[in-house]
Amino acid sequence: MAIVSVQKLNMHYGNICALHDINFEANEGEIFGIIGPDGAGKTTLFRILTTLILPESGHAQVAGFDVIKDYKTIRTLIGYMPGKFSLYQDLTVEENLEFFATVFHTTLEKNYSLIEDIYKQIEPFKKRRAGKLSGGMKQKLALSCALIHKPKVLFLDEPTTGVDPVSRKEFWEMLRKLKNQGLSILVSTPYMDEASLCDRIALIKDGKFLEINTPQGITDNYSETLWSVKSEKMHVLLKDLRNCLMVKTSFSFGDSYHVTMNKGITPMDLKKYLITKGHKEITIKTIPTTVEDCFMLLAKKEKI
Amino acid sequence: MTRQNVIKTEELTKQFGNFVAVDHITLNVYEGEIFGFLGANGAGKTTAMRMLCGLSHPTSGKGTVAGFDIFRESEMVKKHIGYMSQKFSLYEDLKVWENFRLFGGIYGMKDKEIKQKTELLLKKLGFEKEQNSLVKSLPLGWKQKLAFSLSIFHEPKIVFLDEPTGGVDPVTRRQFWELIYEAADRGITVFVTTHYMDEAEYCDRLSIMVDGQIRALDSPSNLKEKFHVQSMDDVFHLLAREATRTDN
Q1: Does B69 reach chain A within 8 Å, measured CB to CB?
Q2: B197 and A CB contact within 8 Å
Q3: Between helices A93-103 and A135-147, what is the axis angle to 10°?
Q4: Which domains does chain A have, with CATH numbers?
Q5: How does residue A223 score in pLDDT terms, banded at 50, 70 and 90?
């Protein structure tokens, strides 16, 4: 069953198109990731689905309710963690939680089991004002507050932006546990490496969805053979790859370059060319595609 | 060939009350080097960087940046460095060319020089048409590329980049690194923090901070060899997991 359903959603800010004909369905009990850079339209989409702004045209339903007609019902059924920290800075950790529980006519005790894992980590600081918490603690408090009324759907807008790789991993483990407790989760992120942690993802750029699929499905659809190329002089290598007529695309990727070649070209051909350019210790091997490779390819097609 | 030291610290320390935010760090960064400064949130990176930029007075230790003492000559340090962060880089309500004039003026450049260099730079970036646009109307990726160019507009010896590519799309992120390589080739030292571990691989050398201390400092390939792992991501996880002081 679709827990979030969107049909032909459009939104403009002046001349800027924030969302263009967006269609998708997120299923009950899945982690659905909206993945794309800043300014792609992620926040606009979240604000429409959480009933905070009205779409220009198109329709959307959350848990079966219409975002315009039934906004009051939707607000009781969802938990929302905006990208910007939006709790009451002058209230303590405990007071913030109690406040949100009261607003939703519930108590901290009633749904404690859902937030226990997360809240336990900040409970020693429950008398501290929210404004005085570190980044990681604020994030955990915001998540606890979004969960306190046991929502059906959780909307997380860029929860891991600016967070270091280790803390990001921990945060995704928390999401996995919440999913196992039956929660449906919509999450946005600019980090392409987080795509593989979602059940299904939508790649978004300039207000358009480039593709919707499972992370595996997206990488399986990559139509090119991807090569990893290295030599002892990496800076020069990039210039030589860019100037090589056999090479279709070349992007730096960690400690190597990810390269696609024109039709009929073999790795041996490329190697010979690089040797004539004076490269040594050349390695060229096929590698599995990542979601980031797919994003770059799809973004390029979109432009043409 | 002896390479010139652009950053040199010995046992540099910053204490807030009983809390040792930066704990006796010693490092050398050389001319034209791309130096990655990594660490988990709360490890002490920002505090260390503020001291190196002359914005925060160290508690103890020694340090020079661009040849000036960070204790006694912090104003001279500020004049000889460039700085850019994800959060603050350009004035949104000024036009592109006005930002260049403002920053050039602050660093004491002559009007004629500012004008010439602005034209040259905008041409190189392919932004000529946008010179009269307000910065806030530009896409994020453009802003970041402009901000970087502006941070080295006055030809500093070293530029500090604090998470310059956060949230930027994958293609622009790579173009941004090509600008970094170019600057380094011209002899400008680049000191950069990032949460993208693939970018850590692009650095000549890097350090990883844990609990205020530098726990590892070497080239990416040497670090991977030393820890017997395949990627910098693995190195980072191994070291950061040792942290006793958490961001919590």
Answers
A1: no
A2: yes
A3: 20
A4: 2-218 (3.40.50.300), 227-288 (3.30.70)
A5: confident
